[in-house]
Amino acid sequence: MTYPPGSSLKITTPSDREIVVTRAFDAPRDLVFEAWTKPEHVRHWWGWRSSTMIVCEAEVRPGGSWRYVTREESGVEVPFTGVYREVTPPERVVHTEIYDVAPFNSGDPAVTTVTFREEAGRTTVTATTLYPTKEIRDTVLQSRMEAGAAESYDRLAEHLGTLV
Amino acid sequence: MVMQRSTDHLSGIFSALADPTRRAILARLASGEASVGELSQPFPMSQPAISKHLKVLERAGLIAKSREAQWRLCRLEAAPLREVADWMEPYRRFWDESFSRLDDHLRAMKEAKEKRR
Fold this sequence. Notes:
The complex is a heterodimer of chains A (164) and B (117). Chain A has 164 residues and is α+β, with helices and mostly antiparallel strands. Chain A has one domain: Alpha-D-Glucose-1,6-Bisphosphate, Chain A, domain 4 (2-Layer Sandwich), CATH 3.30.530. Chain A has four helices and eight strands, in the order E-E-H-H-E-E-E-E-E-E-H-H. Chain A has an eight-stranded antiparallel sheet with strand order 1-2-8-7-6-5-4-3, covered by helices on one side. Chain B starts with a helix and ends with a helix. The chains are: A alpha+beta (164), B mainly alpha (117).
């Protein structure tokens, strides 16, 4: 299913082990590819505005590993890690992905395939992640819950600030 | 646990949605009620096969059948879809927020590139 209808960001669950995230960006794909893969760029955009990137490393070549760790406002650290399987600039990247917290880091990794398609100077990125089990997929879908709730309280606080 | 039960309930909705024919049926019903016959027309499969799909959708609460007509009409029930959307909302917001930051960063990268020229 697609939500929300008509927005540029699309999140679909075409099977019970997959999540597909699609988004168009107003930039040519070599630039989007660079921003998407290079740590010096990733640290500028990955995660909530309120979170802090404390580790952002990536060896972007087949067999190279990556690790992104953010610290949420609550102090909770959220570590993701994996290994690149395929790197074809500026078209396609395939890498594994593990939420590096027990018990999620003991089984098979998820595999993410990212494609970059350029049309009239705009680039559409499609990131398809295949999880080893439906349970892990569902946990990931819910994992932003806590941070998401915190974020919405921030917005509420901001809004209340404007009313005082 | 309430959380567990609601997740199981959502699992039913998700597995009902994890089929292209069933999603196409829901899309068709979004534009109005239809009979089983009407719903089978666009698909290269028999009416009993479509009926099976409809049963799955009905069990997940995604469609309901009206009792008024002689041949029963199916209609979309939006509430479970809303539930799925709400459940995914924090995940969607995570990406939405990251990507709007990426928009800003790409703009900065473009400007930096132009300056270098």
